[in-house]
């Protein structure tokens, strides 16, 4: 029994970073932009937050956790928003192919993260790994009182605040997409930009904003990983393929952020299932790890078999929209 | 003043002279080099001239370094060449990474299991065929679903990359050497079975020859054969293809098999021809970079050689810079990223021209 | 009089390049009336209305709305003047509901109050007698329901003047009745309505007045009560124009293609071709007349093997006396039977040619498979391209130029030239001279005649009755997907064809 609880707890820990990425990417994709730069963005968000906290902690005698936390979040949001802005500028204004830009951004972002993660303390004149224990403590703080409740406390209240923020953002994103005027316009832009344009909606504006907001949210996933999961340190390529899992989760969630919440739990679970499955050899463990991708492929095939159109990818996903070429 | 005319207007060029297009691209390259220099100076605090000397030194400073640069260039070129038929058909194969890995796994398997049973030349040929088939199957899968169900190939091929990666780690468990290291180590390090033989005393000459052959082959295939012609028609308009009596589904599947096979063969080129081991990082993002190479070169093989060489040159150079200053080797990814942003961004200025609003008062 | 008109046009002119789409149009729409605008294809009806809805801007002339001169530069301007246009091609987002589509792009509170919208929509549907579920998704809707949503979009935005572009083209008779009832309710509520159409019986049924356009010029406006089918047809088609197209007598025509009971449904499940049967003979040009979208495209594509048929068959009788069944065969299979069937489709650059490829490569589209070699022969296509350029006087920098860079007339010469070069037994052409200048048009007519004299069975879909009457030997008329009749081009009249096309000929004798 406790094993199952630990499993769920760990699965949530694994899933939250993916959830941030998926929620951000859903908002972006709803505007018709397929941003394959999300894995790079998450690296950038993570390292930017870490660097912000690192410089802050190194500059004062007694760093205050909350201040470090705020600095880390601001740096993370700025870096990931800039990444989104770059993607938007290249794809929307300069009309470069979305896949090409996205993949370049991932190459750049991953390198950016690993480079600074590995070099920043050396550049700052120190030695060894960066570590921002103080700031990380603010990210890892559990809810006092509630987390002490046996079983339920561990299961529901043993996480840092970013976990709850991830879920709140996903719920808000669903509300935004389905219940607000801007959300309605956004869906129209992603589905059929020419029609949206004819209805007087500023297509480029929606694409820009959705992409930048989307990458900002995705960047928080990287921050979550370095601060809460790794406790304020960096390990090269430690983030692994979670960025691509976020892209995969978008498909599994059928472009609905609320679905992404439980989907992230499923992915998080599948990601660590091999540790908890009894009787697995090392080899079968590796096969077990490919499950999230296999599941995604199956979902992708099923959705392409024309079920409900609103559960499919946005109609114009991956295509640029130029008015004068109508 | 409320002037309704926007400040800048963009209009599509009717066609641009060959020279002008390359002028713009050259401008972008120079600009990107300046930005890269600034970034490096900012980080290392060194004189930019020294930095670029370091880069040149790192890429071609010694005979060995120059050959490594050539080796890496031809691998990148081969993958880009492999992607060309698929892209020409407007099929977004971003699964080259996975196709390389599958080809690499097949190549490693043959090196490990059959090195005793056949002479080296036969082993090499069998390995090439096996790796090409492995890549082919990995390309065939999304193609079938694209042809029959119109399943999104971008996302499908992307996911398959990671399935391939897990297959590699799965195999590594069995081939581990030494036990517990979680790596395969150098395969056949004593016998050098399955390794590329030296030609003219150099280990990488065969790599160059093979890639040159494939490049010429694909160029001829795309430009002069009936199948190549079918690919371009399908890529331009499926409606026209049907009108001309082309079986669109068959062309999609056949083309992706070719594309996958070449990428799979690139796996063998890496495993047999340079790394002599297998790991999840043998593809090392080349599958992605090659997409950009192919896209930027507009499928022109000469342009592909130039772009690949330029990117690899800068990568190898920045690895050298990084180690010189005790930084980690990921500096090269940042440099590559910056170069790519400029190069892909400049295509806009090749295709469109900007007209600035004239200020009427000054006129 | 005394009352101001809803819309008044004075001397409105619109040109596209050298083509004058609307020439000095003077016209009025009275308040609270239904005005029909009648005209053949290409008479400039839609262009004129697009100037009212802000899609085009007139080159000359003035527009008055409610007595005041206005400038309409965008659809937004049109909306603010209370003008709403319902286009033939719906602009709706498939995955959204009717209500969501109706409010799309409107300003308002950030959080949607769909209940309120639903109530407003229901109020409107009730007031005018629509039938619409605001929560239904567009992809679940029939064509007429989608049209209802388009009309609701306009009404919801408070339009007082509605323009409907061929609203009945896509509707069944029952749905048309329903639409007309709604339009009458709107008229009763004081709205002014323009409906573009070329169905005479509908014009007579619904409108108060009829304005007639012909070839870009304004003919006249008459009170519907004073008009008859015959008088309107006369106004619409005008005097017969003599074109001097050389026409030879067919020499011993033989049956070449027989179409038996072909029925085709489009992707939306609507029957677009109903039980079509006819024969096309060698040494003859069979013209196909009809309003755009009456099933011409589907008919030709059925013969070419590009269309899935519900039922029916297409037979081919070779000059050697062999009969082949073409239906249920793909183009390549038809080709392998030795049937040389050439087809110049309506969509020249989207189907017949590849715009980004050069002339030589476009020649290859038909011939590249020839021969056993894996390599494609470019020598012959290149020679052919050069030959066509020379013979048909194609204006191009060279045979290496992408065809999309050429003008419409030159593109068509290349397409027709290629199709004729394969020495076909059957030649099908759709709208062969659309968008072409006079000289190019005559080049094409001569080519078709040349083919006919060589013994080819030519099928020519056209829109200009004058041309069909002088070019063809027989003219088949399609109306709403049905073959209404086949006339002898030498004896029939323009009026008669016009009546058959517009459904005014209902109950007339039907050829078998």
Describe the structure.
The complex is a heterotrimer of chains A (326), B (363) and C (512). With 326 residues, chain A is an all-alpha fold. Chain A has helices at residues 2-30, 38-59, 65-93, 98-123, 133-140, 152-157, 161-179, 181-191, 193-198, 203-229, 242-252, 257-276, 282-289, 291-304. Chain A contains 14 helices and no strands. The longest helix of chain A has 29 residues, at 2-30. Chain B has a domain at 79-296. Chain B has helices spanning 18-44, 48-60, 63-88, 96-113, 120-149, 153-175, 205-224, 226-236, 238-243, 248-275, 286-296, 301-324, 331-351, and strands at 8-12, 352-356. The longest helix of chain B is centred in the middle third of the chain and has 30 residues, at 120-149. The two termini of chain B are 17 Å apart. Chain C is of the alpha/beta class and 512 residues long. Chain C has three domains: 7-237, 3-Layer(aba) Sandwich (Rossmann fold); 253-340 and 425-433 and 457-512, P-loop containing nucleotide triphosphate hydrolases (Rossmann fold, 3-Layer(aba) Sandwich); 348-422, no CATH class. Helices cover 33% and strands 25% of the residues of chain C. Chain C has helices spanning 45-52, 75-80, 98-103, 114-128, 143-156, 173-188, 200-206, 229-237, 296-304, 331-336, 348-352, 359-367, 379-391, 408-421, 438-453, 465-471, 494-501; strands at residues 7-16, 19-29, 34-38, 60-65, 68-70, 83-86, 161-165, 192-197, 209-214, 217-223, 255-265, 271-281, 284-289, 311-317, 323-325, 341-344, 426-430, 457-461, 474-479, 482-488. In chain C, the strands form four sheets. Chain C has a six-stranded mixed β-sheet, sandwiched between helices. A six-stranded mixed β-sheet of chain C has the order 16-17-18-13-19-20, with helices on both faces. Chain C is globular, with a radius of gyration of 25 Å. Chains in contact: A-B, A-C, B-C. Chains A and B meet through helix 4, helix 11, helix 13 and helix 14 of A and helix 6, helix 11 and helix 13 of B.
